[in-house]
Amino acid sequence: MPAPAFLLPSHPLDPRRIDPQFVREARLLRDLGGEHHLVDHDALLAGDARAAVDRVPAGRGPFWYRGWMLPSDRYAAFAAALAERGGHLLTSPPGYASAHELPGWYGVFEGATPQSVWLPLAGAGSGSGDRSGGGDGGGDGAGIAPPGPERLAAAVAGLGGRGPAIVKDYVKSRKDEWGEACFVPELADLPAVARVVARFVELQGAYLAGGVVLRRFEEFTRVVWDAADAPSGGSGRDRDQDSGLPDDGRGGRRRTVESRVWWLDGEPVLVGPHPDLPGCPSAPDLSGVRPPVRTLGCRFVTTDLAERADGSGWRVVEVGDGQVSELPRGIDPSRLLIALLAA
Ligand SMILES: Nc1ncnc2c1ncn2[C@@H]1O[C@H](COP(=O)(O)OP(=O)(O)OP(=O)(O)O)[C@@H](O)[C@H]1O
Ligand SMILES: [Mg+2]
Question: Which whole number is the average pLDDT over 120-135?
Fold first, then answer.
């Protein structure tokens, strides 16, 4: 079988150029002797997959995609449009959905990840797809109704009924609106849960993926990270036990220290920081993560890992499809690209 070729997003204003965000990967690929072709992300999102792939030569592949997140149904249309041209993606549409959306991977990672419940919402899409991966909100055009009080109460009961929690959809949170639309200090306060969930649904708007997820909040090691993306206040490591509000009162933000591990065929091929904290070192213990990654059975995935604040072990914060996971600045992805070219 020939080496896989890569499909990268084109520039939003010029279909012959590469999206600036992926220029570095394209250069590295070229240096490694890899082949890439451009696809039109906006056309994929708009539902015009045939037009999106019309610059991809027929009869080529297999392909890895490296690009912006796509809703799962759009990924499936992308795969179908390539198949019409005799090409195929190495990650199947069901494989993409199971790594990309929490309900797809949760069962396999249960016990290794914070306890979670989810409520599908009528009218929600099948995964974030804007170029920022989360967006400034889908606006008010979507009109998706948040879950009613009975459904929320049942979900809260499913999480044990009390304690702190976080809210997200099947793919993304609104972590930058932490107090307003992400963090729930106490599940037993049902009106407060309803408020945070309603605000989350409103802000996600048309970008809401699948439904609402509630996860038990766990205390992870956090670091003060300032706007210049550098640790402030000395070493910055912080193992205190407050309830997660990220403001440190000095203009810095307290963020979970997460490692992003890139897995290919069940092996970790690249370990680095989460893109939110480029340059922040961490050395995760992968022993508990390898078995579920293998069970999930997707060839190319990422896991974001955080250490419990009491030092008692590493937890999976989330799983992602490796094709649409963001690479942090400052990390050399050559090892990963070499492995993908040899897959
Ligand atoms: N159960 C949890 N307990 C404590 N903190 C959590 C929990 N789940 C998520 N977090 C933290 O909340 C923030 C958002 O979480 P998450 O990674 O799930 O959202 P996201 O929007 O998908 O982020 P990204 O795609 O940028 O990684 C992160 O800082 C994460 O460390
Ligand atoms: Mg995350």
Answer: 72
Best mutation site among 105, 175, 223, 310 for ligand 1 pocket (most ligand atoms within 8 Å of CB) = 175
The Cα 142–Cα 204 span in angstroms is 9
Handedness of CA 221, 226, 230, 233 (dihedral sign): negative
Q: Whose CA is closest to atom 2 on ligand 1?
A: 217
Does any ligand 1 atom lie closer than 6 A to the CB of residue 166? yes
CA-to-CA distance for 197 and 191, rounded, in angstroms? Answer: 10
Nearest ligand 1 atom, CA 133: 25
Q: Is the CB of 96 under 6 A from ligand 1?
A: no
Closest ligand 1 atom number to CA of residue 258: 31
How many angstroms separate the alpha carbon of residue 246 from the centre of ligand 1? 12
- Angle at alpha carbon of residue 105, lines to 101 and 106, rounded to 5°: 105
Walk me through the domains of the chain, giving residue ranges and CATH numbers. 5-90 (no CATH), 115-216 (no CATH), 220-328 (3.30.470)
Question: What's the CA dihedral at 326, 330, 332, 337 to 10 degrees?
Answer: 20
Nearest ligand, CA 315: 1
Q: State the average pLDDT over residues 54-66.
A: 96
Closest residue by Cα to atom 13, ligand 1, is 175
Quickly count: other Cβ atoms within 10 Å of residue 75's Cβ.
Answer: 28
> Assign residue 139 a region: left if phi > 0, alpha if psi is -120 to 50, beta otherwise?
left
Ligand closest to Cα of 177 equals 1
**Res. 128 pLDDT band, cuts 50 70 90:** low
Residue closest by Cα to atom 15 of ligand 1: 173
Top-confidence residue, 128 or 79: 79
Cβ neighbourhood burial of 249 (10 Å; 0-12, 13-18, 19+) = exposed
Residue in 38, 74, 100, 83 with CA at minimum distance from that of residue 325: 100
